[in-house]
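Subgroup meeting minutes
Present: P.N., E.W., G.H.
Scribe: E.W.

1. P.N. recapped why we're keeping a running log of single-chain structure predictions: easier to compare across weeks, and new members can see raw inputs and outputs side by side.
2. G.H. added today's entry (346 aa).
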Amino acid sequence: MSDDTVTAPRPSAIIYGCAGTKLTETERALFAEVNPLGFILFARNCEDPDQLSALVADLRASVGRKDAPVLIDQEGGRVQRLGPPHWPAYPPQHQFAELAETHEGRAKSACEANARLIAHDLMTVGIDVDCLPLLDVPVAGAHDVIGDRAFGTNPEVVAMLGKAVIRGLMKGGVTPIIKHIPGHGRAGVDSHKELPVVSATMDELRTTDFAPFAALNDAPWAMTAHVIYSAIDLYAPATLSKAVINDVIRGEMGFNGLLISDDVSMHALSGEMGERAGKSLAAGCDVVLHCNGDMTEMQALSAATQAMDDPAWDRYVAGRKAVGKPDQIDAPALEYLVSSSLARLT
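Output recorded in log:
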């Protein structure tokens, strides 16, 4: 499959972070050599709009592709890499779930408008992929790493509002990533620090955790969970599990978009970086994500990843085509819609 928007040679199946607000010569040389699919940014990389626009352009120039995807986690609430004073403080996803309890239609409209505003912020500085919406369904007693980042505890509401986010982002030309497939809501520990093990039955998982992801299985991208589901695989977290990826994510859920790993530098995973990358790709991930900007780790990963294979490439191209160009935006009207809707919570 070919696509005019992405040029040869085919990129490597990896997405890298970088260390600071400007590329170092060492980073530039590594990116030119490895040709990663794209990049991910964090608060450490973002000072102001001018600096950020220049960094995004420089990242793309390092691989010679003007359309190389640039990702960010811009959720709202406690997870947003762009914030005041240069960017708005967006509400956490949970507020839209609260609104949906009494004003479902208003919640959907406000949620979509909020996502469209986020997309506008991102596209203004050249960022075209958002790691949003989060479709995890928290349960009582779970670690609060998800918490108010979620659209509540009702899987149907999570799917409804997640779909609104996808619409809003895609109208703004931004590719959404549903996460953390097949569900992080039951995790008892933070996978940034430890490996969660979920012992729920398949019936419980299907009814709650899996349901929003299955409902939105036509999303262009998804990000895996570093979580063991003992009912499926006793030993490997979803990111490294053929059973979870092939039987559940690709099979039962029917997700056929681009599947990227969560950050392989997180402490939920063990082993050398190259081993982690190799296992995630062998399990069925299309692309490996590495976030912390550590040069030694990135060099180790470069030896463990190769050019994207045909199925991964086709999924990537299909996702790019599905998103398209941004539509027109009336930002003040959308801002009023969001603020007036959430004002009903007070």
